[in-house]
Amino acid sequence: MTSSALKRVSDAIRSSAFGGPLVVAIGAISYVAAVSQRSSLGVASLAAGERFHTSAEQLSLLAVLQLVVYAAMQIPVGLLLDKYGPRKLLAVGGVVMALGQFAVALAPDLGLAIIGRMLVGFGDAFTFISLIRLVNGWYSGRRASQLQQWLGNGGQVGQILSAVPFSFLLHASGWSSAFLVWASASGVIAVLVWILVVDERIVEPHQGLHVRERIRLLRINLRNPSTRMAFWTHFMTQSSTTVIVLLWGVPFLEKGEGISHGVVVTILSSYVVIGFAVGLVFGQICAHRPSWRRNAVTLTTSSMVLAWIALLAHPGAAPMWLVITWVLATAINGPASMVAMDYTRQFVPKSQLGSVNGFVNIGGFSATFTMMLLVGIALDAYYELIGRPLGQALYSLNGFRVSFVAVVLIISLGLWQYLRNERLSRIQGE
Length: 430
Fold this sequence. Notes:
This protein has helices spanning 3-15, 19-43, 45-52, 56-72, 74-84, 86-106, 110-124, 128-138, 141-154, 157-173, 175-196, 211-222, 225-256, 261-288, 293-313, 320-331, 333-336, 339-347, 353-387, 397-403, 405-429. With 430 residues, it is an all-alpha fold. Helix 15 runs antiparallel to helix 16.
């Protein structure tokens, strides 16, 4: 499609009463697809271990390096977002994810699969903060707060797409076919984004700022304790849920707890349903009761830490009621992480949201890949030192019980830093 034709489509969408819903819906579809590409390895983790004959640490590298690239790209992508707008970045991200999944589909060894997942992480990095910027380009105030919550949590439907249809394809058609289908879907959605997404209802002049000026403004924002508070909010709430869904949930629940594959798929899918339901509550809090955000976030995170401790301290396989309690406590922290973006929407000018949200988004994913890697290293160490001599499998319950201590410690670090910066933010505001 020529640039003049694209301009005519953009002008028509801007002038339409349905322009905002259409544009945001396409952006949301793009985000759902990105979450599905991101989480596809979670249901394929055991298959990946068998296909590439990996240890736990090597398997964790497939997910960890993907997230390292994702996190490393957040600030550069944020700066690009403030300059070029969400449409271009969403489209580019979709194409790169498609290339990455093609590489994973055809990978003959672990090395090429890792490169493919790194490309998925690179393309995924363009998506979420672009969606948030798109929402703020078309809506403001309470409406923007609610949409950020709804779309951020609704995007987790991508996990269901991975847990059910992708998992079915993987078992029915094999590794290559499943990943090729997912790669093709990402490419098609990128084309839709390019044609139908318009950055904002009214074009604003901030896009002409030089990159050095954008970096200067970012540094100013990073000195603000409110920005750091948002970072630690995302750090502590988003991470353990992502660790479960993206990599260690299936091995832990199937091999460690001895739960059947069908029930595990249901558990992973329930994270989306729980997250969306709780997200409606957080959307109302952010829009109508912002003073409640601190207590809500502190309560959900503290509950999650207690649930992890109870699960890991239970002797032997946990009863189903305890597993369900743990699932609920971790799942509600997915929507809680969106409070971080509501903090930035409140404290940061719209023209600088891309770079600041990029920094904040690093929080959850840096915690996630640190947890993933530490769990993988600890599993291998436990197996070599204790598990193998006792005749235990690599993915044993005792191995996971020791390894998941890292998750509890990292979440606790995030909670301490959140409360510290929240207090500084209140003092600064007085």
